[in-house]
């Protein structure tokens, strides 16, 4: 993976099949294609997005990329072969003092089962550890989202436990599975 530093004019992480880059204003329709899909957002704590929600997400991601002391890196996941935006991947610094962060991802369902979420997660870990100087990066997923739990483990995160009733989603309390990786794992 190659990467531009976080203080450069935009993030661009290149892997074998994916590029993770800062979002552009023109990405709204591609984002809404997956973020508005109830099947894609079934296990998320957001969505399905309205067109306005998707516009707001892209506007926030574009504004975040302009911040001089950036702590959030919401990135567009682009298929290298087709050039199509197929998802979103994010890593954020949750504590500078303790060098901790969190990551997450979502992929358009037409691209499920190809290892792209694992590739994106691996790229985020590398970026978080080597470019952001994080010591620990965590991720959570819905307990029923077996595919996402498998992605996290294939990328090198270890299961750490179950967070009971930690999210209130769509009118109900929900548990999350917690995974994490350390910079020396």
SSE layout and pairing:
Layout: E1 2-3, E2 12-14, E3 18-22, H1 28-35, H2 51-65, E4 72-79, E5 85-95, E6 100-107, H3 116-131, E7 136-141, H4 146-154, E8 158-169, E9 172-182
Parallel strand pairs: 6-7
Antiparallel strand pairs: 1-2, 2-3, 3-4, 4-5, 5-6, 7-9, 8-9
Radius of gyration over C-alpha positions, nearest whole angstrom: 15 Å
Low-pLDDT stretches:
2-8
How is the main sheet built? 9 strands, mixed
Strand proportion = 35-45%
Query: Order of strands across the biggest sheet?
Result: 1-2-3-4-5-6-7-9-8
Counting DSSP H or I runs of 4 or more residues, the number of helices is 4
Order of helices and strands: EEEHHEEEHEHEE
- Helical proportion? 25-40%
Question: How would the global form be characterised?
Answer: globular
Mean pLDDT: 95
Distance between the termini: 18 Å
Say how many strands there are.
Answer: 9
Based on helices, strands and strand pairing, what is the structural class? alpha+beta
């Amino acid at each position: 993976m190659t990467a531009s530093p976080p203080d450069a004019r935009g993030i661009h992480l290149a892997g074998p099949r994916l590029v993770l880059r800062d979002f552009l204003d023109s990405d709204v329709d591609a984002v809404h294609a997956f973020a508005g899909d109830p099947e894609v957002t079934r296990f998320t704590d957001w969505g399905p997005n309205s067109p306005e929600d998707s516009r707001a997400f892209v506007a926030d991601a574009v504004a975040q990329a302009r911040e001089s002391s950036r702590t959030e890196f919401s990135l567009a996941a682009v298929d290298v072969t087709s050039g199509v935006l197929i998802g979103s991947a994010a890593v954020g610094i949750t504590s500078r003092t303790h060098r901790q962060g969190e990551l997450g991802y979502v992929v358009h369902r037409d691209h499920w089962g190809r290892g792209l979420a694992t590739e994106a997660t691996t790229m985020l870990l590398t970026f978080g550890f080597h470019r952001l100087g994080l010591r620990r990066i965590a991720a959570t997923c819905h307990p029923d989202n077996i595919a996402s739990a498998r992605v996290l483990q294939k990328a090198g995160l270890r299961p750490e436990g179950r967070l009971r009733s930690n999210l209130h989603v769509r009118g109900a309390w929900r548990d999350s599975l917690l995974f994490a990786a350390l910079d020396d794992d």
